[in-house]
Each structure stands twice: as structure tokens, then as C-alpha cells.
Write a structure and sequence with these properties.
388 residues, alpha+beta, Beta-Lactamase, 3 domains
Length: 388
Amino acid sequence: MSGAKATPSTLKTDMIVALLLLSFFACLAPAALAQGAGDTANSATGIANPSNSSQETTSDNSGSEDEKLFKRPKGWELSILKLGLLLLLFFPWIYTADWINQDCDFANMSHVVWNMIFVFPFLLAMILALVIPLFFVGFFLPLLSYLIPTFVYVVQRNARVGKADRVLTSAHIVAVLSGKPTRKAALADKEKGPPIGLISMGADSDLDNKANLLGARQSPGFLSARELLYDALDRRSEKIMLDYSQESVSVRYEIDGVWHDAGGHERDSSDLMLAVLKQIANLNIEDRRSRQVGQFGTTYKRKKQTWNFLSQGTKTGERAVFQLDLGKAPTLTLDKLGLRPKLEESLRELLNCPAGIILFSALPAGGLTTTLNAALRGADRYTRHFVT
């Protein structure tokens, strides 16, 4: 196995290809052995009986015994029933290997190590099962190489996860038999919601970012975090502020430079939501007092957005601010600002006056700097001297 995590489809494909190769060589092996045995028999017969037409066999009985002794095998005599038993063992092994490959990230275990532990011994045992003459002895080799690593993995992963996420326990078996939703089904429910995705950033490697995102998906606050960010983007908000008090959380959006109240949220659910956003920004979830700065991303309407994350402890609890990173502002001219024609004409006349004062004003984040820069570009800077 390589260092990169194998995807489920890739892992299944590799296993099926390995099975086909094993079956192909297993079918060719008897034929090759039969061909070799027949050639050896012919050589032995030729040595025992040199080409001499005058020599005759001593009796018909001895000739019949020689034919039975050196009878050429027909080949292709592999037992379909025995191969079918191996297939019945192989396909459940594919499913288990795929589950372990995906579950390692959830249990915070090395998928590279467990892929090697689970795959290589089983493939070797399958080869031995095809070679050992006693089939039922050879059949137990892949069976044990399947069950033992599975048992060891389940024991170790159950010790790392919560009680509700443990598998092959009495509660888990009863839940599966009764048709109750499993962790996979619960995870699918969490993925439902508004059409927006979260992107983990800030970790040292892509693998750590994926682990942070996978851990965030397990949280009940994952859906709430997506709903908050979707609502903000849908309202064209560029900033989100969460003010935590002892019992509730107030949410405000900054839209076109003006803060708008977006209502209050419950403290418990908002704590889980903030923990999710901190995790995908690679910040300390437990720290509610220190100043923390990070980044995370979203995918909204087939576009990617980057959010700057800032959290700081306050007297009443904590304040978190998420600011949409719009990148470098474009360079605009007066005709690109969208001013009314008469207002633009009046502004150009004022800019061409010999002397005077022009006052620009706007609401916070209302485009004051952009308007001032566009006005300066629209004036003749070689014949005018401006003081800002």
C-alpha cells in the first residue's frame, strides 16, 4: 500500500484485480503441471522403449498398466466448488477491508498500517489455499487471516471511540438486526441540509485537514455550522459575529457595511457549532479565553470562499467573528462605480476646479476608499495637487 489513503472504489478495484489474477494463475497451474507431467511421461516412455519397430511388448496386460501409469492428464481440472468457497470468503473480506480503510480516520488510526496488516496476509493465504493439496486445511488459512486482523482492529478501535460508536457489541448487533440507523446512516443525515460545503484549512498537511473535517462531520453541530454560513452568504453578508453569553448567543450579519441582527441561538447548540468551525480552522476547541486566529473555506454556488476566523474571550463568554476574504479589490474608475450620470458629471467638474475642498463620506465598509481612489484617477494629477 502507498502512503496515500486508498479510496473505497480504488481499494475494491485493486482487490478484484488481485482475485482475477489469482484465479487465472490457479487455472493455468494445473494445466501447466499436467503438460509437464505428460512430457515427462513421454520422455520416460521413449527412454524405456527406444524406436525399434522389431521390439514388441511382452504382454497386453503390461501395456495396459503402462498406459495407466503414464496417462497424460487433460488439465483444467480445478474444482469449481472449492473456488466458489474461496469466493464466498473473498467478497466479505473486500467489504471489511473497505470499511477498515474508511474507518481508520474516524478512529484516529493509521490506515496505511492497517491496510498492510489486513491485505497482504490474506492474499498470501489465498495463494497457499490454492497450492496446498488438502483444501480444507488450506481454506482455514485465509479464514484465519481474515478473522484475526478484523478482531484485533475492532478491539483497538472500540477502545478509541465513544460507546455509541462501537461495533460488534451486543448493542450494535441488536441495533443492526432491529433496523435502527447506524453511524453511517446518521452521518448521511448530517450531510443533509443547505447546499454548502465546508473546507478545512490551517493544518500542516492535507491529511491533517481531512482528519479535521472528518472529525467535524461527526459532531451534531456540523449541520448548524453549514446553515449559519449558508444563511450569511445567501444574505450577501461579509461578516458574521457571534456573541456568547451564559444562556444564549446573539448572531449579527454585516451587509453593505451595516450590522443586522440575525436573532438568537441556544447556547448548547451554538457551542457545538463553534467547535466545528474551530476544528476546521485547526484551532483549539477547548480554549474559550485566548485570542485565536485561523481560516476555513466554503463551497457555495460552485465557487470557493475563504473565511478569516477570529475568536476572543469576553466577560460574558466569547466572541467569534468570521470575515469573508474577498481578495484584492479591483481597480475601478469613475465610470465603473455606477454613479448616476449627473452626479458623475458634477464630480468631474469639481475635480477640475482650480482650488477647493471635496468631501467624500460613506458608511463603514461602504466603498469610501474605492470611491476616493477612483476620483483621484479621474482627475488630472499633473496639473492638480491633492491632499487627502
